[in-house]
Amino acid sequence: MGYMVVRSEETKRIYLDEISMVIIENIAVSITGCLLAELNARKIKVILCDEKRNPASELVSLYGSHDCSLKNKKQIGWTSDIKASVWTEIVSEKNTQSVLLLREVEQIEAAEMLSGYIKEIEFNDATNREGHAAKVYFNALFGMDFNRNADNAINAALNYGYRIILSAVNREVVSNGYLTQLGLFHDNMFNQFNLSCDIMEPLRILIDRLVYHENFAMFNSDEKHKVVNILNETIYIDGGKYTFLNAIKIYCKSIFDALNDNDTSLIQFYRYEL
């Protein structure tokens, strides 16, 4: 029928063509198998939250593309050199976006330090410049006492936003026929999304920017909606202006093109402003 019916205090019809992601926030929600099958067929990402309303799991299609077997063979055949080259580009871009954000919020000294890290990045980030940059970056944004493991609204917002982006990237990986488990750099046997974790790295900065400017004192439903809405923000990529969600599609496709054609110049990174 092309729409889903949501029943609460009132009944609403939401047309499936108008949505790209469904987040089930409340564990009391019931959803039919018929709807889940249709959402999967339309490649609409479904995220399930836990009792604290934080993303806990998601639906991942077993067959996201008609040529999955061919794409899987290509993915297994990606050489160590091209994977390392693409990862090096991803890490460099993440640090570049981090520097731009620090300059935007007038953290000039930290921005210069990160700029130095960019120049020091070796092939495949062998010296872990990304890890060194992260501590400087987060302390500059959120204060010297900030700890990514602390239980506070800032970390809750960051984690929620990163999970939303990861789910969006998972959708593109699967839709293009690839396996989320086989990463470029990430290689954790317990991580179902190694490849997506690699690809999403530069995208994290958009979440960081939002959380910095919002400066959340608490993180409840209203704040979560603000974070999810970042997918509708407009950014620039491939010479055009797109919503963040559509930019993710272009970016992911360019990563796969670079890997398959052994050409990192094909990668299309986003720009927040021209």
What layout of secondary structure does this protein have?
Blueprint: E1 3-7, E2 11-15, E3 21-24, H1 33-41, E4 45-49, E5 55-58, H2 68-77, H3 80-104, H4 108-120, H5 129-142, H6 153-175, H7 194-199, H8 204-214, H9 221-228, E6 234-237, E7 240-243, H10 244-261
Parallel strand pairs: 3-4
Antiparallel strand pairs: 1-2, 4-5, 6-7
Helix pairs in contact: 3-4, 3-5, 4-5, 6-8, 6-9, 6-10
Could you please describe the fold and organization of this structure?
The chain is mainly alpha-helical. Helices cover 50% and strands 11% of the residues. Strands 3-4-5 form a three-stranded mixed β-sheet, with helices on both faces. It has a two-stranded antiparallel ribbon with strand order 1-2. Strand 4 (45-49) and strand 5 (55-58) form a beta hairpin. The radius of gyration is 19 Å and the shape is globular. The N and C termini lie far apart (41 Å). The model has no long low-confidence stretch (mean pLDDT 90).
Please indicate the percent range of residues in DSSP E strands (runs of 2 or more): 5-15%
CATH top level class name of the largest domain: Mainly Alpha
What name is given to the CATH topology of the largest domain?
Answer: Four Helix Bundle (Hemerythrin (Met), subunit A)
> What structural class results from the helix and strand content?
mainly alpha
In CATH, the homologous superfamily of the largest domain goes by the name: CRISPR-associated endonuclease Cas1, C-terminal domain
Major beta sheet, specifics? Answer: 3 strands, mixed
Largest beta sheet: strand ordering? 3-4-5
Q: What is the general shape? A: globular
Global mean pLDDT: 90
Second CATH tier, the architecture of the largest domain: Up-down Bundle
Radius of gyration: 19 Å
